[in-house]
Structure formats: C-alpha cells, structure tokens
C-alpha cells in the first residue's frame, strides 16, 4: 500500500542522502502515516482511515463528519 494520507493527499518526497564525502544517494521522505479508527455519526459506523499526523490534527480542527464528506466527494471509499 502506498504511503498516502487519505485526508490531505500527502505523498512521499524524494531527495538525496549526502554522506560526509558528499556522495549523494537517492532517498525517500515518507509522511508519518497512521491507521486510525473514527466513529462517524453521520454514517452511523466506525471508519478506518490511513492519515498522516498532520491529517489527524486537521480532523480534530474540522471534525470527522466534514472530513469524511470531503473524502466521499472525491470518490474515495471509506
């Protein structure tokens, strides 16, 4: 499964690891993805989301009903 946040759409960034001798090798910066279960009153059931740490803060700020409505409007399954 890809490292992608269902709330914000955050995806991995890419760059280089630079050693002491300044040799550059490819690396990947993954978002902090967590599997989190929420009770959604509008759906009347629990929903499991793959969200980043920043996505969890967004859910706390906006509310789970608003966020789930946005996810469903994009056509994603929850």
Description of the molecule:
The chain has 78 residues and is α+β, with helices and mostly antiparallel strands. It has a single domain, classed as Ribosomal protein L28/L24 (Ribosomal Protein L24e, Chain: T), CATH 2.30.170. It contains two helices and four strands; from the N terminus they run E-E-E-E-H-H. The protein has helices at residues 53-62, 64-73; strands at 13-18, 24-29, 33-40, 45-52. The strands form two sheets. Strands 1-2 form a two-stranded antiparallel sheet. Helix 1 packs across helix 2. The mean pLDDT is 96. This is Large ribosomal subunit protein bL28. GO terms for molecular function: structural constituent of ribosome. It comes from Promicromonospora sukumoe. Pfam families: Ribosomal_L28. Keywords: Ribonucleoprotein, Ribosomal protein.
List keywords for this structure.
two-stranded antiparallel sheet, alpha+beta, 78 residues, Large ribosomal subunit protein bL28, Ribosomal Protein L24e, Chain: T, 2 helices
Summarize the structure.
This is Large ribosomal subunit protein bL28. The protein is built from two helices and four strands, in the order ββββαα.
Strand and helix map with partners:
Elements: E1 13-18, E2 24-29, E3 33-40, E4 45-52, H1 53-62, H2 64-73
Antiparallel strand pairs: 1-2, 3-4
Helix pairs in contact: 1-2
